[in-house]
Amino acid sequence: MNLEDLTDSAQNYLKCLWTLSEWTGGAVTPSEVARHLDLRPSSVSDQIRRLTLAGLVDHAPYGSVTLTEEGRALALQMVRRHRLAETFLAEMLGYEWDEVHEDADRLEHAISERMLERIDAALGHPELDPHGDPIPSSDGGLPDRILRPLVDCSVGDHIQMSRIRDADPAVLRHLGSLGIVPGAEFAVTDTGATSGVMLLRSGAPGHDVPLARDIAASIRVLPVSGQGADGA
């Protein structure tokens, strides 16, 4: 089966299942899909049933939904289209990182494979999109990165912001205003375990950046060796 054999809706569901599984660790429920796509649960159930009959997902009654091998391959093709489109909009057309998602949703269904490969080449074959999400290669390969949730970090950890969930443009704008973007380095000065607000230092002491833990849960980081973000 090829992407062209699927409706735009089916393509969206496969992409949704993959992107949700990246953050949940694999298991995705129909209710999570409904929330992510802002659809009625009954509509989601109908589409999942069709994808199951097509051999693209496995769904245990009242249980989670997982992609089959064929479904995974098609989902990765859609993810590649979406993330390359986001990167194209940001790098070539000057979109802000909180603006790219919606227009990339439209572009991903319209661009041909030839155009997609031209975009990939023009961008220098990027591995990450503007939010730090990995861009699958043309054969479905993904960059090998081991990231950890920001909320799991301890006081004194020196970290680099590596991946930020792009579900809410308002959250992205807020994070951007704080300098919390992929590639930025910080030291954790308070985990927020009691207050619910983490403190991150990027410069001199006394200039800590507050970040609510519920927002921090949508951020993945890499440890930074050597000097910390405050030069210590």
TrEMBL record:
Name the family the entry cites. Answer: Belongs to the DtxR/MntR family.
Identify the GO cellular component terms for this protein.
cytoplasm
Q: Which domain of life is it from?
A: Bacteria
Q: Which residues form the HTH dtxR-type domain?
A: 6-68
Q: Which biological processes are named by the entry's GO terms?
A: negative regulation of DNA-templated transcription
What keywords sit in the KW lines?
Activator, Cytoplasm, DNA-binding, Iron, Manganese, Repressor, Transcription, Transcription regulation
Which InterPro entries does this entry report, sorted A to Z?
DtxR_MntR_Metal-Reg, Fe-transptr_FeoA-like, Fe_dep_repressor, Fe_dep_repressor_sf, FeoA_core_dom, HTH_DTXR, Iron_dep_repressor, Transcriptional_repressor_C
Subunit comment for this entry?
Answer: Homodimer.
Source organism of this protein record: Corynebacterium antarcticum
What are the GO MF terms of this UniProt record?
A: DNA binding; DNA-binding transcription factor activity; protein dimerization activity; transition metal ion binding
Q: What is this protein called?
A: Diphtheria toxin repressor
**Location relative to the cell:** Cytoplasm
Is the Hydrolase keyword given for this protein? no
Taxonomic lineage is: Bacteria, Bacillati, Actinomycetota, Actinomycetes, Mycobacteriales
